[in-house]
Amino acid sequence: MLNLDLSATFLGLTKKLDFPFIRNDQKLSKLWLYNLHYFEDLLSLNASSRRDFHVKLLDRWIDENPVGFGNGWEPFPISLRVPNILKAWQGGLPLQEKHFKSLHAQASFFSNVLENHLLGNHYLVNLKALLFCSVIFDNTRWLKLAVKG
């Protein structure tokens, strides 16, 4: 279990991370909450020094975010999170079968809810993530969706 006194700062606002509750706290802006789900720290300059912490954080995210529920399962956060995790894995983050199953489930879920109604950056990020996932998971359906755009 990950029992640390953590806080995060996004958009100039610092909050204590009271997991799992804060991930869907309606008192905070949607954009601030989305940032909790992006896992951008996995790609930071000194991320390799926190690999064990990152794996524990991923485990906790998987355990506390049931499929299809909450901010983390909206297409845009998935579109940023999944490639970030896979890039970190390519850079040495030790992922296990549990992580790959979750990543596949996330990509599969969001492949059915692409934000083509929004167009712009959301849809472009969706397609880019789907393309990345199609290569990693060797999925021709996702590849066709991404290329067709």
Encode the helix/strand succession as letters.
EEHHHHHH
How many β strands by DSSP?
A: 2
Our measurement of the CA-to-CA distance between the termini, rounded to an integer number of angstroms, reads: 41 Å
Report the helical percentage: 40-55%
What value does the Rg take, in angstroms?
15 Å
Q: What are the low-pLDDT stretches, counting only 5+ consecutive residues below 50?
A: none
Average residue pLDDT: 91
- If helices are DSSP runs of H or I spanning 4 or more residues, what is the number of helices? 6
Number of domains: 1
Major β-sheet profile: 2 strands, antiparallel
> What is the overall silhouette?
globular
Give the structural class: mainly alpha
Beta fraction of the residues? 5-15%
Strand arrangement in the largest pleated sheet:
1-2
Describe the structure in your own words.
The protein has 149 residues and is mainly alpha-helical. It has one domain. The protein has helices at residues 30-38, 51-64, 75-90, 97-110, 120-136, 140-148; strands at 7-10, 13-16. It has a two-stranded antiparallel sheet. A hairpin with a 2-residue loop joins strand 1 and strand 2. Helix 1 (30-38) packs parallel to helix 3 and helix 3 (75-90) crosses helix 5 (120-136). The longest helix has 17 residues, at 120-136. It is globular.
